[in-house]
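Data deposition worksheet. Section B asks for the primary sequence of the deposited chain exactly as it was used as input, without tags or linkers unless they were present during the calculation. Section C holds the resulting structure in token form. Section D is free text for depositor observations; keep each observation to a single sentence. Incomplete worksheets are returned to the depositor.
Section A, Depositor: J.P.
Section B:
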Amino acid sequence: MAFRPACIAFAIFGSACGSQSNNVANGLPDAAVLADASEASAQATTDASAPFVLEKKLYVSFILNVHDWVYGDDSIATLNRVIDLHEKYKVPMDIYLMDPMVQLYETKAPELMKRIATSPMVAVSYHLRVPYPYYANFDWMGLASMSDANLSSTILNYEEHKLDLASGQALGASGGYQHLKDVIGYAPYVVVTETGDSRNESAMAAIYKQKGAFFTLVHGRTTELGATKYGLQLRPEHVEVKAYENPSAIAVDTAIIEPAIAAAPATRPAFINLKWHDDNFHSRKTPWINVFYVDGDEKSQPRTPPFDLTAIGDIGLKTETEKKVQWDRYDAMLAYVVAHPELGTINSRMLKQALSP
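Section C:
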């Protein structure tokens, strides 16, 4: 691929594929026994003729943010395995893609892009990472000094053309939000506009909304159903669970899900969002962090282009045991929500159906 040396971009450090974990061994019912319990939520995703209707219950969303262009083969394997699990349990999910990952999948695994677009369990949304100049605190291009018109045209150019990771520039080929929309056949539901700069956010939101986006989001605070920002609906979130954070094997019910349920408000509907990244299944740190920041995870000293895409450094790849911990956790969380039909499962497609007139 033009944006990444082949020896780095598609290096494989342990397979993300393998046998599914045994739910019975974890003290949880087997998925085959529980499949019927999730049929109602699956039907809402698969039957477009029956729009989804929100009930007065607590909803759980599984959200996977995808951004690992460094270990591309691991990312591909992770996406396929995650979709396998969701199709097995019949639980809807959200996948957030960014342009370099769409480029990678189209080149390396076109069948995966087709699967993401067509799986009845998957709803696609869109996000950004560095080196976009309108990513939070990463304005290497000088957007702050541009006129409103130039700012908007610059962002539009990025959202219609491929991002080159080394230069940070938008290339001539189709890319960005528009290309993802064209590839999957619908406008990605959620867009991430939160950058800390209201002028950038407003310009981004206007472009995404014109192209068909329905939701945006905010981090770090409760978001109520029906709230809006820059003319887009806000994705509701009462409890955020970064389900990947604890590296040790822990009891999913008592350490993760039940505390989240307890933290949710009494009013219904309410929303718990369970979040992962593709690299959480094989890496201890964000693989590209040293490419774009002098101080790595601190992210207080951004680099400027051209970026050295080989400057990965030691980001700490997970052992097979550590990978198994994450996969067992993911499997167990799916099994938990299926075993508790009082919990609803939902993705952004279903949510849009519920909120659309």
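Section D:
Residues 131 and 168 are 5 Å apart (CA to CA).
The mean pLDDT is 89.
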